[in-house]
Amino acid sequence: MPVPHRRPAEAGLAAFLEVTWLEPARTLYGALLVIDAEGGPLEFVFNSLAAPAGFLWPESQVRRQGVPALVRTLFSGCRRDPDLLVAAASLGDPEFCRRELAPSIPFALVQEAMPPDLPQWTWLNSQPTPAMRAHSLALALQQRGLASEPLERVRAGLREVFPHAAWNDP
């Protein structure tokens, strides 16, 4: 006889996004890690974008056009439908991220310099309401200390799939 139990409610999926610019290769490397509410990895999507060289393509111009182009390839390559998107604040200023990346799911930038028990998320579009799965998911991630930790896994994944890149390791 099976043991009676209550199944936990589906808490949703979160996607953590990282894009890194590396010189002198003038290349953007990006990845998207989809996790469940307990931090279990479900999908890892990655890509790179080599920038044109020369004085006509300064780094700021390449980043302004390249980051959205690279991020769209990651969004398109993702097979799961996350309820929440989180990226490091270093991705770009909030207005750039809101306008150029324009995800239709709740999107937050996280300040990683904060102590792990005090994650600082800045919502770029509407903060999820209590009726949304993203609301309970965000709370669960923060309670489990996963407000920014998955970004470290994304960076480790980028180093593994692009071992030839000149990573600026400390």
What is the overall silhouette?
Answer: globular
Which architecture name does CATH use? 2-Layer Sandwich
Task: Bin the helical content.
Answer: 25-40%
CATH class categorisation:
Alpha Beta
Chain oligomer state: single chain
Overall residue-averaged pLDDT value:
88
- Strand arrangement in the largest pleated sheet: 3-2-1-4-5-6
CATH topology: archaeoglobus fulgidus dsm 4304 fold
The stretches of 5 or more residues where confidence is low (pLDDT under 50) are: none
Strand content: 25-35%
Per DSSP, the total helix count is 4
- Topology pattern, helix = H, strand = E: EEEHEHEEHH
Q: How would you characterize the overall build of this protein?
A:
The protein is of the alpha/beta class. The protein has one domain: archaeoglobus fulgidus dsm 4304 fold, CATH 3.30.2170. The protein contains four helices and six strands, in the order βββαβαββαα. It has a six-stranded mixed beta sheet with strand order 3-2-1-4-5-6, with helices on both faces. α2 links the parallel β4 and β5 (107-111). α1 (59-77) crosses α2. It is globular and about 70 Å long. The termini are far apart. The mean pLDDT is 88.
Offer a quick outline of the entry:
By secondary structure, this protein is of the alpha/beta class. It is 30% helix and 26% strand. The protein has a six-stranded mixed β-sheet, with helices on both faces.
Element layout with pairings:
Elements: E1 13-22, E2 27-36, E3 41-50, H1 59-77, E4 84-88, H2 94-101, E5 107-111, E6 120-123, H3 133-143, H4 149-161
Helix pairs in contact: 1-2
